[in-house]
């Protein structure tokens, strides 16, 4: 895993945040929708033990084996159900969470080919069936220019929305810090 692979989680995060701002959601609901766009990559945490044990007698190949294991309809529905239970605007938030989840799958489908040329398939109906696995022969590399353009575009849209709406993604972690961020954005755009 190189530094270029950081682009993907950032892109997914920004996609979820921009999508969450397409409706009038409260802070918790915006966080749930944003998290929904990143959640499929929780299986990527297997990279940590894999890297730490790669030179041991018994390496743990959790990333290599399980990456994209959560990129399926079942996990998307679990996320939507959990989001439904914690939201005030339940149906709207759950639907946006499901859309955010699927935006992650779409972004991976078109732009997550590895440096070795491997195109990660998306096992959409796992664990029930392996018959419908998504892949695209035109998938561009993770570090290809379209991913950078998408990420920069989402970042600019995020900054614009923060200035207009009065909150940024920083609000998900610290409302106080977010007020400072939005204040700076508004001052610089005046």
Question: Can you walk me through this structure?
Answer:
It contains eight helices and no strands. 29% of the residues are buried. The protein has one domain (3-142). The mean pLDDT is 89. With 190 residues, the protein is mainly α. 58% of the residues lie in helices and 0% in strands. α1 (7-20) runs antiparallel to α2 (27-38), α2 runs antiparallel to α5 and α7 (145-165) packs across α8. The protein has helices at 7-20, 27-38, 47-53, 62-66, 73-86, 90-111, 145-165, 175-189.
Put the structure in a nutshell.
The chain is mainly α and 190 residues long.
Please give a handful of descriptors for the protein shown.
single chain, 190 residues, mainly alpha, 8 helices
What ranges have pLDDT less than 50 throughout 5 or more consecutive residues?
Answer: none
Helix content: 55-70%
Class derived from helix and strand content: mainly alpha
| DSSP summary: helix tally | 8
Count of domains = 1
Topology diagram in text:
Layout: H1 7-20, H2 27-38, H3 47-53, H4 62-66, H5 73-86, H6 90-111, H7 145-165, H8 175-189
């Amino acid at each position: 895993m190189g530094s270029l692979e950081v682009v993907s989680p950032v892109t997914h995060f920004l996609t979820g945040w921009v999508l969450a701002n397409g409706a009038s959601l409260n802070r918790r609901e915006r966080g749930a929708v944003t998290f929904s766009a990143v959640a499929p990559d929780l299986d990527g945490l297997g990279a940590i033990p894999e890297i730490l044990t790669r030179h041991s007698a018994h390496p743990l190949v959790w990333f290599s084996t399980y990456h994209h294991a959560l990129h399926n309809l079942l996990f998307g529905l679990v996320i939507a159900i959990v989001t439904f239970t914690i939201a005030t605007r339940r149906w709207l938030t759950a639907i946006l969470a499901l859309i955010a989840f699927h935006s992650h799958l779409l972004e991976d489908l078109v732009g997550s080919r590895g440096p070795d040329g491997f195109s990660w398939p998306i096992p959409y109906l796992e664990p029930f069936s392996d018959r419908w696995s998504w892949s695209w022969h035109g998938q561009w590399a993770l570090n290809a220019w379209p991913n950078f353009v998408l990420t920069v575009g989402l970042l600019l849209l995020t900054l614009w929305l923060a200035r207009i709406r009065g909150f940024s993604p920083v609000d998900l972690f610290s409302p106080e810090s977010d007020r400072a961020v939005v204040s700076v954005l508004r001052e610089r755009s005046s």
